[in-house]
Fold this protein.
Amino acid sequence: MIMKIEAITLREIRMPLVHFFETSFGRTTERRILLVTAHCEGADGWGECTAGEHPFFSEEATDTAWWVLKEYLAPMLTGQTLLGGGREAAFRMYGVRGHRMAKAALENAVWDAEAQAKNVPLWKLVGGSRRELAAGVSIGIQNTHEELLKKIATEVAAGYQRIKVKVKPGWDVDVLAKIRERFPSIMLSCDANSAYTLDDLDHLKLFDDFRLLMIEQPLWSDEIYLHALLQHSLATSLCLDESILSARHAMAAIELKACRILNVKLGRVGGFSEAIRVHDVALASEIPVWCGGMLESGLGRAHNLALSTLPGFSLPGDVSASARYWKEDIIEPEVTVSGQGTIAIGDQPGRGYALREDLIERLTVRKETFRA
Ligand code: OSB
Ligand code: MG
């Protein structure tokens, strides 16, 4: 199919979170989200940049993404005629090194337009087949243990199939022990966002007492080999998030036995094309994957759901209801989760969730459109 990209719009929206979200690298109370629109002949595709407000999770941030999109990525695609849709968009941005979250926002916008232009659901276009997704939640560090236990109780009662809690030195074994005491049989995992080093080996071995599904990214964000050393010393499975930026990294991690589970994030790996390749590498090695989240608005959420329909996504993802994050989400309908902790995938063409463009306009703090 021939798709001409006539213009590209960048916009930044501000969305306050219903509840602050705290990880080992900091607390977020309001998101500054960069949205990209690819104005194609006959269809507008939208993509969300998952970069955070600060370069703490990765090197990227909302402002670096804006800069690289404006100066480099948008000029590479405006006025261009693409025969290969989203995959070709990724190919054409190859010359810019890194900046994967910025690239993903634009590439995914083209996939979004392609699905509309072809009149097929986005999940089918990316090769998915699952129609009922298992939903999990990621719960941040709270002010007190009691507040965390209360939050877990709420999410378990809502039906969520897996609870993930954030940990860091000083908020870990005591917290996990209390959770296990109160909730002996829930599917539980933890995410350290690189808060430990190998000096913490003996301490990390204590995590083996809590029957965790996994420990996510305990060590350095750019490290694979040392995770392999750690994995050899632990009974609990490791899962890599920050360390996996491409299918090559996934292959290395699997061959080194650095983890037994992989988290796939659209932004972190640079868009749908690479995320599908990461999935394919993992599936071929029988390594289960799940879809990570980055506190996305409904748009990024819808794209995460499409990705999660691929067959290798056999563990509950950080895909959860809009209402956990936003008083009002920018999509219609919002993402909802059943009492059994599942999300139903519809048959509508495109992303399957309409954008509330009036609301988006009201949330917008800056906007720029580029043409060839
Ligand atoms: O490591 O998975 C992570 C949020 C921001 C940055 C990194 C992470 C997270 C989450 C939240 O865990 C997942 C979600 O969107 O619910
Ligand atoms: Mg993580």
